Amino acid sequence: MRAQALVDLSNHLGIDCKIYRPLESGSPIYSFGTGIYNLIQKTYPGLHKLYFRFLEIACLHRSSTFLLGKKKNSIEF
């Protein structure tokens, strides 16, 4: 909502502005997680503590090999 308000204001002032949503437009898994988080924030914001606890326990990013979108042929130092 705030991002859209800033875009509306900048367009009113004659400044071209766009909203980028890398999580929503990226991997379907990231988009799904973002959708769940947004739903939690709209319906019951206190539940986000449980959601983040789940993410910490699941530890989806313990190893960089599990990061979606990471280039496989990266240079290692």
Mean pLDDT value: 76
DSSP strand (E) fraction? under 5%
Uncertain stretches: 73-77
Helix- and strand-based class? Answer: mainly alpha
Output the number of helix runs.
3
* Gyration radius, in Å: 17 Å
Number of domains: 1
Structural shape = elongated
Explain this structure to me?
By secondary structure, the protein is mostly helical. The chain has three helices and no strands. The C terminus is likely disordered.
Based on the model shown, name its key terms.
77 residues; mainly alpha
SSE map:
Blueprint: H1 2-12, H2 28-43, H3 48-58
Can you give me a brief rundown of this structure?
The chain has 77 residues and is mainly α. The protein contains three helices and no strands. The chain has one domain.
